[in-house]
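So, can you check?
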Amino acid sequence: MLPFFDAHLHIIDPQFPLVPNQGYTPDAFTVSDYRARTEHCAIVGGAVVSGSFQAFDQAYLRAALAELGPTFVGVTQLPASVTDETLCDLHQAGVRAIRFNLKRGGSAELQDLDRLARRVHEVVGWHSELYVDARELPDIAPVLTALSAVSIDHLGLSQAGLPSLLRLAEAGVRVKATGFGRGDLKVARVLSDLYAANPGCLLFGTDLPCTRAPRPYCDDDWRLIEDTLGDEGAKRVGYENAFAFYRLPEG
């Protein structure tokens, strides 16, 4: 198994508050749980992503990043009223992106997307990550392509939205090759099409612990990357693209 940067994982620590989302509260999945689940994988770092059930809490994220170490970064949710001081403080703690959860909420609203995304990039150089069904992308595509750096979670979730996602990938938007069991996608074909559209766009991640996913991550998901894209493609999608996007030094 080739090494990879886990570009999308969640840490759920019961020491910190959780907010039920649509009646759902996840089970615990601590840093120790994550390490145990991935001990056989050659993981070289990762991105800890705030879920809808964590809302604007930053304490859990600070603790997780401190425990995981310097090759792990944070992707957080913030209110539109966040101060520059808070942004700089979170940057020092290892946060490198803001998430807009348009599918399940818990983040800033769609109407805040353009202004807040521009602001965090200007103040701390962060990019923006969106959890959104690709069928909704045409309505916000002009906003996304005008931003400095954006990624879309879970291959956009829907086969019907793939044409819109491909156009955005061609324009430089990144796409997380995560959550293969979440959507109605023909995953191998989608991976091939996105890689052909822009070899720099795809970022692989486990999505562990795969909260609410009909099918959780399995090691065959990473093998599918290797089988579909070959060693060179797997290197790019596995860690090279992510190291560049999250601005981490390689080696």
Notes: The chain has one domain: 4-245. Strands lie at 4-9, 43-49, 72-76, 95-101, 127-131, 150-152, 174-177, 202-204. The chain has a mean pLDDT of 94.
